[in-house]
Every structure is written in C-alpha cells, then in structure tokens.
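Here is the promised in-class demo. Please do not try to memorize the tokens; focus on the logic of going from shape to residues.
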C-alpha cells in the first residue's frame, strides 16, 4: 500500500510490504525502480522476513545489493525478533530517521521500532543577511584618479610590502566610492517560463472567479471552468517549451546539460548549515597533513639531506640554474591582464572588471610587484593564500548504479514538463553514456550483476515513455530501439573485434586475435575464423578479450570444437544462441533507420 504525501519540498511515498515470495526480488526491483524515479524521498517500512544480519544468506546479500543499487539505505541495526534476528527494516532515500530505538511489544514476537522523521510541511521564506557594494555605480574615471593620488611606495620596499601597498590602495578606493552595505532579503525564485500572456490569462481567471461568486449563474461557472482548463493547458505548454529549448540548446555537451538540470531543480546546498569551528579546524588539519606528507616524500627522494629539492637520486639537476630574469614592461603586463578572464576571487581587493577598466593607473603597481619578485626571487606570502570552497562527498566513490539513479530521479522530476525527445537527450547524456562506457569490461560477469544495469535501463525507458510498473518492459525497449544491456556488451565486443581485424584498433588489441589456420583444407577455410586460445583461469581467463570476441563472432567454430564428432550438428543451445544474435542485428538495423 502506498500513501504519497505532497509537500512544498518533496513527496514522501510510504510503502508497506508483506512477506516475500519466491519471485520477490524480481517484482520488488521493478516496484522500486518506479518509486525511486517517481519521488526523491522513499521510506520502506515493514516485516521483510529477510535475515539481513546473516552474512551467509545469499538471498539477504541479493536484497541488500538491490537496495544499494538504488541508493536506498537500511537503518535498523538492532535485533527485532525475540530470537535475535533483524527482520523489520526501515529503508530510506534522501532522508535519515532519528531517535531510532527498539521496545518490547507484548502481543507479538517482534519488537516495536520507533523513530522520528523531520520534514518541513510549509516552506518559509528564507531570510538572509547579505553584504554588497554598488559596483555598477562606480565611475572608472574617479576610481583611476583616486588610485593615482596615493603616494608611491619606497623604491627599496620588499615584494610583501609592495603587495600590501597595492591591496590597501585598491581596498580604500573601493570603500570610498562603493561602501559596504548590509540588507536582509528573502529569496524567491520566479518562474522563467511565466510569460506576460500567462499573467494576462491568470488575471482573466480571477475576474471570471469574482464574477461567478457575485452572480452564482451556471453560465458564469461554465465560463470559469473552461478558462481554468485553457489556463492549465497554456501553463503546461509554456513549461514544456521553455525546458525543451534549454535542453535542446545543450545537446551534445554533457557539462552544459548537467548545469542546466542542476539550475532548474535548484538542489540543496552541499554544505550543512551547522558547521562548527572544530569541524573547520579538522578539515584544515586534514589538508595540512596531506601537504606535509607530500613534502616529506619529496625530501626523502633526494640523494642526501644537503641536496636541494630539485636534485633527484641521479645526482644531476633536472633544470639549469637561472641567474637573473629580464624585467617585465608595463605594456607586456597590460596585455596579459587584458587577455585574462574577468573572474574575481573574494581575496581580490578590487573586482577584475574594474582593474581592467582602470589599468593605466594600476599597471605600474602590478609591474613593480612582479619585477621586485623576479629580482629578489621571493613570492609574497599573501599571494600564496587561496579561498577554497570544498565539495563534500560521502566516503568512497559512488557506484555506477547509484550515480545513474540519482540522474534518473532528477530527470523524472522534470519529465512532466519535457517532451519525449528532450527526455531522451537527458537520458542518453546522463544514463546511457554511463552504461555504455567501457562496457566491454563487463563481459563474463554474473547475470545478477548485469541485471543491476538492466534495472537502470528499464527505469529510464519507463520514464521516457511513461510506462507503468506492471507493464512489460520488452515491448518498450523495442519501441525505443534499445538493445538490452547484455547485448550492448556483446555488440561492443563485436565492434572491437571488427576494428582489430581491420587495423582500426590499437595494436595491443589486434595482437590478441589470430586467424584460424586448419591443418588441412576445409570448406570453412575461407570463412576467416579465429583461433580460440586456451585460458588458464576459468573465472578471469574466459573474460579476456582474446577469448570473448571469438565466442561471439564465431559460434560455428565453438560448436566445431565442442562437438568434434559431429561438426555440423546444431543443437538447441547453439540454435538459440544464433537466434539471439539475429535479434540483436535486427535491433541495430531498426536503430540505424531511426537515426
């Protein structure tokens, strides 16, 4: 039983499950793919009757692997049954239960599991204090005059003193012309697709609503109802057109598409709001320890403690000693600054756009700093500081399945406002590209591991076509002209084999394939068959490229070796194998016709 609760922030989907049957994992995986694609927040609660605390249970391992594949976390780690097993589970995505505890329940052999879930039912406007300057109101002529009015530093000043003078002059000038201001604001995001025509339709609907409330006539009620349907259709069309145009503009550029989807969905901040001083100190100490470790490793690679860092174990310097540098001219420095991007760091005393606008007044100071640093061989310590915004991730790299399901959830949130072609663009950029990347390495893996990727492909197909969970997925894949994951792997091996045989692949692949030369003349001599090498290790050896292409591209040769007493006898197994390749080639043919 599912019970969706819509809130301004998300939609919670509660699912109550009964005891699993023999086909539980197959049916459960199909259900989870639909739920995870429908809502970013899913809570699974129930008596699963699966001993996940038993490390030797294969069924429990497959169940936990399925949850991990979909990015679902199981939070119960205490015995629930009176015999000491964990049977009642709380599995969640995008939300973490708190205050989880277990208490006795007298009328049952299971204990009661109590927990809290924090969710915001009403989204309040976010109040934030911002500091800003009216940079656009600064007159560059006044700024240049003010910078030029400051006295020049002493000629014998060190590079650090020159940088300090530079920062003080620009900071004081900026504060004089654009003082820092403070204001409390509430952030509201207006819909970019809400056009003036929609605003006019909305106003018309309000007039019709007031007219119906004033008169109560049936004709006015019908007019208001018809207008609401028209307004709803106009909203859907406007949103679909806006989002589809954005996505079609970024076709072929995954980076642009990713930033577009991220901007549209407006994900929460990656940094938690309650960061303490101890956490910041621990974060800084972590990076300092890494830098110190690198310094120690570099120092240990020298021939002796007396040698400089650039002396390696060979005893010879890698670079020649530089005695002096040619001073840079103001013209050269100005050219480099004008060619640089107009990006600004929060440590800069003046925005880069203003630096370029007032370059004749600022370039002498910059040139003096550079020449002083080249002359003394000293880089000012203040120029060694950097402002870093860390991007925190969970420990360990996210597996392929969790990453692709993250993208599928985002695409499903935009699906009601997208056309099918725009949805296909996003799916191919974020999901199919991950499934197909280096998928030849997946050759020979167990079927249950390949099925994880097949679950992803099935979920993507349902999102594109709007197919419901009970419907069969095979007709949908044929409609989209998509090869199943297993056949995509076979196709990649066949493609690599073809390239290797026709000198279109690297030599390290071509050298692994050898033409079959029979001891005497056979009718199959002109078939250009390949030799099947003997592998030493059954698990990994049969997955090698030299083994798998031969099996896929030469089923008759494999049959000859396995049935040497009857080389032309085709049993049912090999017949089904050849039919599978015919099916694959037909799908490739229809896919080529589509594109």
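The designed amino acids, position by position:
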């Amino acid at each position: 039983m599912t019970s969706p609760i819509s809130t301004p922030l998300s939609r919670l989907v509660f699912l109550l499950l009964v005891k699993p049957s023999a086909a539980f994992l197959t049916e459960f995986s199909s259900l989870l793919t639909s739920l995870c694609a429908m809502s970013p927040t899913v809570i699974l609660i129930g008596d699963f009757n699966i001993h996940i605390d038993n490390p030797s249970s294969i069924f429990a391992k497959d169940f936990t692997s399925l949850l991990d594949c979909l990015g679902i976390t199981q939070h119960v780690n205490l015995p629930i049954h009176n015999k000491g097993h964990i049977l009642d589970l709380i599995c969640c995505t995008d939300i973490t239960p708190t205050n989880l505890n277990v208490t006795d329940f007298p009328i049952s052999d299971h204990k009661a599991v109590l927990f809290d879930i924090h969710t915001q039912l009403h989204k309040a406007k976010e109040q934030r204090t911002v500091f800003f300057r009216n940079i656009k109101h600064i007159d560059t002529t006044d700024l240049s005059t003010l910078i030029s009015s400051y006295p020049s530093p002493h000629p014998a000043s060190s590079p650090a003193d020159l940088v300090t003078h530079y920062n003080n002059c620009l900071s004081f000038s900026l504060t004089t012309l654009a003082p820092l201001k403070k204001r409390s604001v509430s952030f509201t995001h207006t819909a970019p697709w809400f056009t003036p025509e929609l605003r006019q339709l909305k106003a018309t609907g309000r007039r019709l609503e007031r007219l119906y409330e004033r008169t109560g006539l049936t004709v006015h009620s019908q007019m208001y109802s018809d207008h609401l349907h028209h307004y709803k259709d106009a909203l859907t069309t406007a949103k679909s057109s806006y989002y589809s145009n954005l996505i079609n503009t970024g076709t072929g550029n995954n980076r642009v598409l990713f930033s577009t989807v991220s901007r549209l969905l407006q994900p929460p901040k990656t940094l938690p709001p309650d960061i303490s001083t101890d956490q910041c100190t621990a974060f800084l100490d972590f990076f300092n320890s890494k830098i110190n470790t690198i310094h120690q490793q570099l120092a240990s690679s020298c021939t002796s403690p007396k040698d400089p860092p650039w002396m390696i174990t060979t005893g010879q310097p890698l670079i020649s000693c530089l005695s002096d540098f040619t001073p840079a001219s103001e013209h050269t420095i100005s050219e480099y600054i004008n060619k640089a991007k107009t990006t600004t760091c929060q440590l800069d005393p003046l925005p880069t756009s203003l630096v370029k606008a007032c370059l004749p007044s600022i370039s002498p100071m910059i040139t003096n700093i550079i020449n002083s640093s080249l002359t003394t061989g000293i880089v000012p310590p203040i120029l060694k500081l950097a402002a870093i915004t860390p991007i925190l991730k969970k420990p360990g790299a996210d597996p392929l399945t969790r990453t692709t399901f993250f993208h599928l959830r985002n695409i499903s949130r935009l699906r009601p406002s997208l056309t099918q072609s725009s949805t296909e663009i996003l799916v191919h950029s974020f999901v199919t590209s991950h499934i197909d990347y280096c998928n030849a390495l997946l050759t020979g893996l167990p079927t249950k591991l390949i099925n994880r990727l097949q679950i992803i492909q099935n979920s993507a197909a349902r999102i594109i076509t709007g197919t419901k969970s009970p419907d069969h997925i095979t007709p949908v894949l044929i409609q989209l002209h998509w090869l199943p994951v297993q056949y995509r792997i076979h196709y990649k091996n066949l493609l690599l084999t073809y390239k290797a045989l026709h000198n279109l692949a690297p030599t390290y692949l071509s050298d692994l394939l050898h033409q079959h030369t029979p001891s005497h003349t056979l009718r199959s001599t002109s078939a250009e068959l390949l030799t099947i090498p003997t592998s030493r290790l059954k698990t990994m050896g049969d997955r090698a490229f030299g083994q798998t292409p031969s099996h896929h591209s030469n089923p008759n040769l494999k049959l000859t070796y396995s049935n040497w007493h009857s080389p032309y006898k085709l049993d049912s197994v090999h017949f089904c194998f050849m039919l599978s390749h015919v099916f694959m080639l037909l799908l490739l043919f229809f896919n080529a016709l589509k594109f």
